[in-house]
Amino acid sequence: MRAGVRRWALGLEYDGSRFCGWQTQPGGCGVQDALEAALAVIHGGPVKTVSAGRTDAGVHASAQVVHFDSLHTRPNSAWVRGVNAHLPRGISVLWARSVSGGFDARHSALERGYRYLLLNRDVRPALLAGKVGWLHGELDLAAMQQGAALLLGTHDFSAFRAAECQARSPIRELRQAMIVRQGCCVVFEFRANAFLHHQVRNMVGTLVWVGQQRRPPEWVGELLASRDRTRGAATFAADGLYLTEVKYAPGWGLPTGGGIMPVLPLTL
Length: 268
What we know:
268 residues
């Protein structure tokens, strides 16, 4: 880094239904576009951000992390309250920390966590439209849990990778694949060192097929071993997907946890 340049890390939450994904777009519809425009006002000049994960259109975040470099000294509050004053509804900066130049929001991350909220009832959501996925009909939770267990570990996840994925390697270590029912909602929790493009949504779609008894649990392992995306289920809707955690080494001194998740209609 050049002398006088200071690196900052920010924690964000955002409603992905209001944007065309994280990454900047020519039309300015990305979360990154809105954030960089707001940062530029406080910074007094252009700012380029790097995120821990490039969420797709419609995907939400309660704990996104980004970094950027600043030529000017500003208090933490300026990067939080000041930037928030210039952000559109649907994005908030939660915290700001000064970090060394060796920090990289993407490459310094040790682990990422995603949660998928699936409303499983006969009628579509209204109050939570865009915030949860939706599926009617019975789901066999035990079968889904058996299938999810077959995904754990270090594997080639090509069968769950989008065709346009730009990752150099399809090898990922999936450290958690938990599925629980909370009232009328089915909650999927995934943690890994990193994820491929559409990997979580494709895993959810696959496990839903198992829950619908369209495929047996062991099919998940067969699909994984095949490395063939064309044999898998359709990519599930983005609505219920949240980036909920980005883990870093304690030495960086960054906050843990994220923003507020939607309140599930547990009693419906």
